[in-house]
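Example record for the data management plan.
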Amino acid sequence: MMVFKPEDRFNRAKCNSCGICVSACPESAIETDSSDGITAFTSACIGCAHCGCYCPLNCFDLPLAKSDMLPQEDQIQNLYEARRSTRKFLDRRIDEEVLRSLLEPVGFSPTGQNAQGVTVDVLIGRDNIDSLILNPIVRLVRVLDCFRLLTLFAGPAGKIIKKLRSGEDVICWNAPCVLLFRAPARNVTGKTDSVIAATMVSIKAEALGLGSLWNGIVQIISPILRVRRSQAVLCVGYPALKRYQQIPERTWNRSDVSRSKQDARGDHRED
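Corresponding structural encoding:
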């Protein structure tokens, strides 16, 4: 998918010089003449397409907005509350059509500085996943635990190590598909961009009847596996168990900040 280039799409004949695109551009990348007619798009353009999205005459030939199809607030909240990590997957392959639908949110995922360029490496099938992820981890664990010292000092996690030594998949949990998200090394917000994209995909998974698992282990050790270094990893598949209750709300905090601590200290001294 090519980055949006306004100069390639702009239809000058349709433009009435309303100036909306100029005010919508976050980088002031649109040059105009004295009558507000567009004369050029400068190199400051980041390809965000705001100029086209807010143009009332669609001078940039973009698909029409689907504002009448937006879900209601309670529908969105229900989808968030439905999400739960899945660790028991059916032995069922995800069809290509479903997989394409699952990954569609990546194309609309926000990125810092509109950097774009998130890549999703898709591993499908247990043979592929075992070869590239599970088997290298099992071999590493067996080497590190050759004298059972790793098991001994692991405490409660020793049971997990024993399962890994026996080849049991307690890493990807027999998921039929693993998605590895990464951004270009030059992208200073690459990790955040990848996490946002993976989050959107994990929510879409619920709507498709799929389950997902955020796999921090694979993400952390991806540089030593037979996969590309990843910044977010999702295991995806059809859940083997049916949920009857939703999860309780997790602990979080809200802190309303109106002024900096330095300003507050200054006020205190004045008193």
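Summary line stored alongside the record: The mean pLDDT is 91.
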